[in-house]
C-alpha cells in the first residue's frame, strides 16, 4: 500500500531532528546554502568554525567578509577580499562535486567537499585534518633534515662530496652560465701530525681548520666542502678571482692567529697550502676542469714550499704564488 503525504511528513519530522543530532556528533563541519548562497542549515561545528552565533543565517560572502575583518574563522589569504570573493564565487557552483583544503585562524586545517544540486542547494562538509597535516609537515621537515645530514660531513659540519655533486647539478642548470672560482685547501704535513699526536688530536685539528675556513667566508654564495682527509674546497659563485684571493689570504691570516701547534713543521704551527682556479661552468667537463685546475694549483703551492697560495696568471695558464704580504679586508 502506498504511503500518504502525511506519512512522509511524519517520517521527516522524526528523521530531520535525528539527522541534526548525528551531524552534531559527527565532528564534521556541515552546512547547506541555498541558490542565493544564504545559509539554510549548519551544525554546531560549522558555526564554531565561522565564529557565528548558532541559528544565524548569513550569506556565504558575508561570512567571509566578517571573518576577514575580524581575523577569526576562515582564512582568506588576500589583500583584496572583494576580488577574492568574486574569484571563488565564479567557481563555487561550476561543479557538481569538488574538494579542497581550507585553514582557520585557530590553526585548524579542514578538508572540504562541496556537493551542488541546481535548484536545491550546496552541501558543504569539512573534516578536520589538522593532525594529518601536522604529521605530513613533520615528515617533510624530517626528510629535508635527512637530506641536509646526508650532505654534511659529520666531523666538520661542512658540505661533503654528496653536497658537491648537488652543487654541480645546480650549476649546470643555471642560465646564464655562472663564473665559479674554486679554492682548494690542504693541511701541510698532516700525516706526521696524525702519526705524532694521534687521530683524536688530528680530528680536532680538522675541526679547527674547518672553523677557520667557515669563519673567513664573507660572501653569501660561497660553499665550503670537506673533500676527505685533510683536503677542503670552497666554491665561490659569480665572483671575480680577486675576491677568492682575498678569501684565501684571510684564511691564511686566521690560521696564523689560531696558532695550532704542529710538531713536524719548521714554524711549529699548522699551515695550509691553497690553489685557486676560475671557470665559467657550461657543462660537466668545465666543472671537472675547474677542480683539476685548482688541484694543480694546490700542488704547485706544495712544490713552492707549502704555506702559500697559488693561482693562475690572468694572462696565461701558468701559475704563481701570491705575495705573502697581501692583506685581505
From TrEMBL:
<dbReference type="InterPro" id="IPR043128">
    <property type="entry name" value="Rev_trsase/Diguanyl_cyclase"/>
</dbReference>
<feature type="region of interest" description="Disordered">
    <location>
        <begin position="310"/>
        <end position="329"/>
    </location>
</feature>
<dbReference type="GO" id="GO:1902201">
    <property type="term" value="P:negative regulation of bacterial-type flagellum-dependent cell motility"/>
</dbReference>
<dbReference type="InterPro" id="IPR050469">
    <property type="entry name" value="Diguanylate_Cyclase"/>
</dbReference>
<dbReference type="InterPro" id="IPR000160">
    <property type="entry name" value="GGDEF_dom"/>
</dbReference>
<dbReference type="InterPro" id="IPR029787">
    <property type="entry name" value="Nucleotide_cyclase"/>
</dbReference>
<protein>
    <recommendedName>
        <fullName>diguanylate cyclase</fullName>
        <ecNumber>2.7.7.65</ecNumber>
    </recommendedName>
</protein>
<feature type="compositionally biased region" description="Polar residues">
    <location>
        <begin position="312"/>
        <end position="322"/>
    </location>
</feature>
<dbReference type="GO" id="GO:0043709">
    <property type="term" value="P:cell adhesion involved in single-species biofilm formation"/>
</dbReference>
<dbReference type="Pfam" id="PF12860">
    <property type="entry name" value="PAS_7"/>
</dbReference>
<dbReference type="GO" id="GO:0052621">
    <property type="term" value="F:diguanylate cyclase activity"/>
</dbReference>
<dbReference type="GO" id="GO:0005886">
    <property type="term" value="C:plasma membrane"/>
</dbReference>
<feature type="domain" description="GGDEF">
    <location>
        <begin position="178"/>
        <end position="314"/>
    </location>
</feature>
<dbReference type="Pfam" id="PF00990">
    <property type="entry name" value="GGDEF"/>
</dbReference>
